[in-house]
Amino acid sequence: MKISILGTGSWGSGLAQVLADNGHEVQMWGKEITEVEDIQNNHHNSKFFTAALNPSIKASTDIQVVKGSQIVLMAVPSIALESVAKQVSPYLEEGVIIVNVAKGFHPISHERLSVVLQKAFQNKQARIVSLIGPSHAEEVVLRLLTSINAVSEDEEASRIVQEVFSNHYFRVYRNYDLIGAEIGVALKNVMAIASGILDGLGQGDNARAALMTRGLAEISRYGIYFGSKPETFLGLDGVGDLIVTCTSRHSRNFMAGYEIGREDSAKKFLENNQKTVEGMYACKIVYLEAKKHHIDMPITNEVYAVLYEGKKPSQAMIDLMARELKEE
Ligand SMILES: NC(=O)C1=CN([C@@H]2O[C@H](COP(=O)(O)OP(=O)(O)OC[C@H]3O[C@@H](n4cnc5c(N)ncnc54)[C@H](OP(=O)(O)O)[C@@H]3O)[C@@H](O)[C@H]2O)C=CC1
Ligand SMILES: O=C(CO)COP(=O)(O)O
């Protein structure tokens, strides 16, 4: 099967490895010439990994290479998703399966990303599937064991994605609760920033366990308000992705928080960051939506205050602990 991947960053490259290992014809598209040439000529993406890529993976800066693909994978950050979708749309086949792997929301409308893609590809009758779960690209590229969900309201499309991606090191489950899964994987990035902040401030395992547990309660409260199934938050797109991101130094969200905690300020990080840290954007969107809908989100509110209002992380931690005492 011909499968195109839009985005030559870390997750696009990790998933290219899986698909090429499964014998598919993998064509990547990227705007960054150095990444594209590295993949095409050296079978590496040295900006992100030392591991070699499957040599059958092709890469180009010409977006027309997607022509004739049965599946197109969108591996760009949430803030770029809509513009890349518009750019590629003229070259897509009718009924193409679009696989989104970005975690977040539309920066202006605050819509979930599958909704953004459904609208962008309406004229192609595209079938949208989110492939999301606990999965650091750094491990997938090394073929370390990973389990993830193909989430869609289109059961047949999610079965196709499940079959196409699964292999001996990459196991794909199906899930049909798109609202819950997309909210789970977007909000865990906010909690990962909070977890990194605690680490940077010198806190330990007890604090991290409390943060993750109360963070999951917060994510579930938010998701259930918007129509998610509660059990989704006990699965790969809830607690699974929360664990992998809140506890790992591979996570850019965790590491962003760590740097902010160590400095006891977000200023330096915000001035210098060049990486994709989705939790920064998700935090603002969730803060605004929660306020609008009166959803109690104490951890998100404190991360927001640290990122956007100049609050000291140490003070945010004190304020969280000093709130009115209540039942779990
Ligand atoms: N990395 C991971 O382990 C995982 C990531 N994800 C999610 O996948 C999404 C992508 O992340 P990831 O691959 O890690 O990010 P990276 O920063 O590694 O790569 C993003 C890629 O998108 C490209 N890009 C950015 N903006 C545009 C644009 N306007 N037009 C075209 N290309 C663009 C970048 O190009 P350039 O380099 O030129 O900026 C780069 O090739 C995120 O939402 C992330 O949360 C999900 C699971 C795991
Ligand atoms: O989503 C991820 C793992 O599931 C990747 O996390 P980061 O974006 O924080 O690196």
TrEMBL record:
Cellular-component GO terms for this entry: cytosol
UniProt pathway annotation: Membrane lipid metabolism; glycerophospholipid metabolism
Domain spans labelled Glycerol-3-phosphate dehydrogenase NAD-dependent N-terminal: 2-157
Catalysed reaction, written as an equation: sn-glycerol 3-phosphate + NAD(+) = dihydroxyacetone phosphate + NADH + H(+); sn-glycerol 3-phosphate + NADP(+) = dihydroxyacetone phosphate + NADPH + H(+)
Binding residues annotated for substrate, in chain numbering: 103, 252-253
GO molecular function: glycerol-3-phosphate dehydrogenase (NAD+) activity; glycerol-3-phosphate dehydrogenase (NADP+) activity; NAD binding
Domain Glycerol-3-phosphate dehydrogenase NAD-dependent C-terminal: start-end pairs: 177-317
Sites where the protein binds NADPH: 10-11, 31, 103, 137, 252, 278
Residues holding NAD(+): 7-12, 137, 252, 275
Annotated GO biological process: carbohydrate metabolic process; glycerol-3-phosphate biosynthetic process; glycerol-3-phosphate catabolic process; glycerophospholipid metabolic process; phospholipid biosynthetic process
PANTHER family per record: GLYCEROL-3-PHOSPHATE DEHYDROGENASE (PTHR11728), GLYCEROL-3-PHOSPHATE DEHYDROGENASE [NAD(+)] 2, CHLOROPLASTIC (PTHR11728:SF1)
Family label: Belongs to the NAD-dependent glycerol-3-phosphate dehydrogenase family.
NCBIfam families the record matches: PRK00094.1-2, PRK00094.1-4
Protein name as annotated: Glycerol-3-phosphate dehydrogenase [NAD(P)+]
Native organism: Bulleidia extructa W1219
